[in-house]
Amino acid sequence: MTALRLLWREFIGGHLTLLALALTVAVGAMTTTAVLTDRIDGAMRADAALLLGGDLRLTGPRPVSPEWLNEATRLDMDYTQTIEFPSVVGLETRFELTGLKIVQAGYPLRGQLEIADSRASSGYPTNQIPEPGTAWADPQLASKLDLAVGDKISVGETELVVDQILVFEPDRGGSFVSLSPRLLMNQADLAGSELIQPGSRVRYITLFAGDNADAFRSWLEPQLDISQDLDGVVEGRPEVGNALTRATTYLSLAGLLTVLLSGAAIAMTATRWANDHIADSALFRTFGLTARETTGLFATELGVLGLLASCVGVGVGYLVQFALVDTIAGMLTISLPEPSMTPAWLGLLTGFVTLFGFAAPALFMLSQVPPIRVLKRDYAVSGLGRGVRYLIALISIAVLGFLYSGDALLTAWVVLAVVVLFSLVVFLGRIVIRLLGPLEKLGPAWRFGMQQLIRDPQQSGGQLMAFALTALAIAMVSLVRFDLITTWEAQVPTDAPNTFALNITDRDAPGFRQAVLDRGGDLAPLYPIVRGRLETVNGIPLVDHLEGVEPPGAVRRELSLTEASEIGRDNMIDRGRWFVADEPPGVVTVESELFDELNLRLGDVLTYQVGPDVIEAEVIGTRVVQWESMLPNFFMIFSEGTLSSFESTRLTSLSLPDPDKDTAAIAGEFRQVTLLSVDAILDQVRGILGRVSQAVSVVLYFVLVGGVLVLAASIQTSLPERRRESAILRSLGGSDALLSQSQWAEFLTLGVVAGVLAAVGTEILGWLVYTQIFNLQWQSFWAVWIGLPVGSGVLVGLIGRWSARQARQLPPAQLLKIADG
Amino acid sequence: MSSQPVLHVRQVTHGFTDQSGQRLSVLESIELQINPGDSVAIVGPSGAGKSTLLSLLAGLDVPETGDILFQGESFSAESEDARALIRRGRIGFVFQSFQLLQGLTALENVMLPLELTGISVGEAKQRAAKWLGRVGLGERMTHRPRMLSGGEQQRTAVARAFVSEPALLFADEPTGNLDRRTGEAITDLLFNLNRETGTTLVLVTHDERLAERCDRILHLENGQLLEVVE
Question: Rounded distance, CA A664 to CA A101, Å?
Answer without folding.
Answer: 27
